[in-house]
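The pair is quoted verbatim below.
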Amino acid sequence: MKAIRVHQFGGPEELRLEEVADPKPGAGQVVVRLRAAGVNPVEAYVRLGGYGRNPQLPYTPGSDGGGEVLSVGAEVTKCKPGDRVYVAGSLTGTYAEQTLCTEAQVHPLPIKVSFAQGAALGVPYGTAFRGLFQVGNVQPGETLLVHGASGAVGTAAVQLARARGVRIIGTAGSERGKNLALANGADYVLDHSNDAYLKQIMELTNGRGVDIIIELLANKNLGKDLPLLALKGRVVVIGSRGPVEINARDLMGRDGKIMGMTSFNTTPQELASIHAGLVAGLATGTLCPAIGEEFALADAAKAHEVVMRPSGAYGKIVLKP
């Protein structure tokens, strides 16, 4: 089969299309024929070699995908060859025509959900679900601010929060991004490239502020986030690309909280809860991943450039093996 391989850490040019052996399932394992693979910023950080959880070289990137079960090993009971599934985690990487997974990493994909949408679930929706509900403990009726509401994690957060009965203020940097966030369920979407949005948020909340902020670029926004918090408000930091300076008094005066998270720390029990919720949302139609640009597997380097561009992505970036 064909797969992207990384033989040394570095730039996007290190993503090389090669021929490798087909994976074979062992006990409790599943081989999935991938029709789409999700591209996430974390994979670009890992490729550079400084992320802190570096894989052994050479490796195939990726943990998200959508496709069909090709074969299963002994003791597998939740899926069978031919089943449509999405992959959230992989033993061999998903930038490939086939991937080897544990049974727990494979989840049913309804017929009405495309393979590309299946590839948008693992990291973006899993991260948004954990940030909102397991870390942030968002409640119906609260007001949520999603910084970067037009990207893959941002649109996931908007859809998940909408289904929970949360009032949503999103931000985006273009009219296209604002329209996408509104289409996914945000009540208001503001232009975060103009600092006037800070005053607008306070006006929309009648001076009270927001209960929870999903922060996808903390190095740029965290210092500005804290004065936007309501009493007992909290910020869940999901993404950051560098250091940031804050005024702790903005937090102290509100009894506020800053909570960081990474998907690497998710327990098996939390993962099971996340995907039970996502599968239910797909089945009922409350979740509908937004797909942005699609690339051939051979163009993985270009996909990495796009997913890391400063303007952000519009929906999910996917590869088509």
